[in-house]
Amino acid sequence: MAAARGRVTGNPAFVVGPVRRETFGAFVEHLGRCVYTGIYEPGHPTADDAGWRRDVLDLVRELGVGLVRYPGGNFVSGYRWEDGIGPKEDRPARLDLAWHSTETNQVGLDDFMDWCAKAGVEPMLAVNLGTRGVQEALDIVEYCNHPGGTALSDLRRKNSSDEPYGVRFWCLGNEMDGEWQIGHKPAAEYARLAATTARAMRMADDGLRLVVCGSSNSGMATFGEWERQVLSEAYEVVDFVSAHHYFENAGVLEDHLAAGVVMDRFVRDIVAHIDHVKSVRKSSKAVNISFDEWNVWHMNSPRTPLPSGDDWPEAPELLEDLYTVADAVVVGDLLITLLNHTDRVHAACLAQLVNVIAPIMTRPGGAAWKQTIFHPFALTSAHARGTVLRLAVVSPSFASPRHGEIPALSAAATHDPASGEVTVFAVNRSTADPLHLDVDLGGFDGLQLTEALSFTNDDPLWHASEQDSTSVLPRTLEGAALDGGRLAAELAPVSWSVFRLARTAGMTKGERRA
Ligand code: AHR
User: Fold this and answer.
1) Which residues contact 203 (CB under 8 A, 6 or more apart)?
2) Ligand 1 center from residue 164 Cα (angstroms)
3) What is the DSSP string of 237-264?
4) pTM over 0.90, yes/no
């Protein structure tokens, strides 16, 4: 029987918005081994003078990360940023209540800025609105962004950098809607604090891009009402509402592979809540989404329990999920979803970067390696360029017991008007059936297919390990072809693919007409 057909039509006239480097963000939290023995390990054979693991830095650059959120996460809601500056020997050890660990503060703000410069990424900082408030937020902004001549800016100059850091992105707390959050507040209380803090931070630096806390996931009982109350107070002084969502394979692969649809519905709902407030306020200002925590997280089958009782370890193994090929297909699909919402999702952070629910793993004193989810992220970041096209997609569907009828085909395409390159990303979410992909790119003339890669495996539950992280990699998709402006390929069940098309010299429509 012939494979079912999924049809995609793309035309340069139909555009969602620009490809943003901030969509390819990640997250470094003081949690488990993300910082200590993750990005930082003095004495490691590859460590530089500052203690940064150069093998990890290389992988971060290869991953193509544009933005990194720091220092949490739940951690930030009990954090005193001043603990992490100045001479390392003078920094205090503290209890980290969020992760029942001991925080040594051997890595802090100035160190992170140094790491960002070496990794070539932009920082996104979170301020503590759990146990702290307006004054501490103002202090850290002055420390980071004021040129000099004040106590805090001169302290930065003394500790590390003559030049201000010019940090643009700031999160006003973290997941303040969640009861697990230190200093969790009801919406009205958080709304007032976030708006007051935002207003004051803008008085110190009017170039800031501020993210107010939205909901911790779409299943929160307060989702929607939280956004309404928070934005009713803070709409005019913030730029983004945060969104967080983790996806899990709870045993039914069809449900797991529906993650892209679940994220798509969540984004549409948040946009509706934002625009409702905009309309009620008769505001001309746009507020967009910072999807600053997303990933697969096997929350219900943790490999390591949270420490408890008298045990307050330093950098314990926590949340060190191993990712399967199916998880990587889901991550590729979630990136497709984020790209397709680039008009309203202006920043996004894969949570997290190293060891903790991460694309990069390390052994203390030993190797660093790539998990499966590394591949779709790196390839999407490397090849999504220019503008995201608004595609028409027609697809067969399959039944997800939890989420209903789900289209088997998920696709996004980008077009770089400068180079003429078109890139198509496609996922076959079906666990059972191959899919014949038929992409009509007739609106683009003079293209040639330069590369077709697919990431899939007979066993979708294969995962990489320290011993074997290379036997399943993205491979050339045999048979993919471009003929008369139509791209055709066979997509295996549970697969993620990328197709790169370049302009044939002297063959564009515009040039021919001229
Ligand atoms: O990324 C792990 C945790 O998930 C973060 O600390 C928190 O913000 C979220 O609940």
Assistant:
1) none
2) 29
3) G-SEEEEEEEE---S-HHHHTTHHHHHH
4) yes
**Helix or strand holding residue 172 (H, E):** strand 169-172
Distance CA 161, CA 156 (A): 6
CA distance 337 to 14: 17
Confidence of residue 305 (pLDDT cuts 50, 70, 90): confident
Q: What φ, ψ does residue 91 adopt, rounded to 5°?
A: -80, 135
Is the shortest distance between the CB of 174 and ligand 1 below 6 Å?
A: yes
Rg, Å, the chain Cα set: 23
Spatial separation of the C-alpha atoms in residues 54 and 184, rounded to whole Å:
37
Taking only the tens place, the pLDDT of each residue in 19-56 is 999 999 999 999 999 999 999 999 999 999 999 999 99
Domain locations in the chain?
Answer: 4-12+387-513, 20-383
Please give the angle made by the CA atoms of 118, 419 and 378, to the nearest 5 degrees.
Answer: 40
Cα torsion through 379, 383, 389, 390, rounded to 10: 0
Specify the residue with its C-alpha closest to ligand 1, atom 3: 73
Of 23, 16, 15, 17, give the one whose Cα is nearest residue 346: 23
Distance of alpha carbon 99 from alpha carbon 15, whole angstroms: 43
The CATH classification of domain 4-12+387-513, taken from the options 3.40.50.2300, 3.30.1780.10, 2.60.40.1180, 3.40.50.300: 2.60.40.1180
β-bridge mates for residue 437, sequence order: 6, 489
- Is 281 within 8 Å of 357 (Cβ atoms)? no
For 20-383, CATH gives: 3.20.20.80
The answer to whether the beta carbons of residues 216 and 242 sit under 8 Å apart is no
Q: Give the chain's mean pLDDT.
A: 96
Specify whether the CB–CB gap between 388 and 16 falls below 8 A.
yes
Among the residue ranges 2-6, 153-157, 175-179, 379-383, the one predicted with the least confidence is 2-6
Choose which residue among 75, 174, 306, 318 to substitute to test ligand 1 binding: the one with the highest number of ligand atoms within 8 A of its C-beta.
174
445: three-class secondary structure by DSSP: coil
- Cα 73 to middle of ligand 1, angstroms: 5
User: Best of 27, 28, 29, 242 to mutate for ligand 1, by most ligand atoms within 8 A of CB?
Assistant: 29
Share above pLDDT 90 across residues of the chain, in percent, rounded to a whole number: 95
Beta strands in 456-494 (DSSP E): 475-476, 481-483, 486-491
β-pairing, 288-296 vs 397-400, is unpaired
334 Cβ neighbours under 8 A, 6+ residues apart: 247, 259, 260, 263, 294, 295
Indicate the helix (H) or strand (E) that contains 210: strand 209-212
Element at 492 (helix H, strand E)? none
Helices 54-63, 374-383: axis angle to 10 degrees equals 60
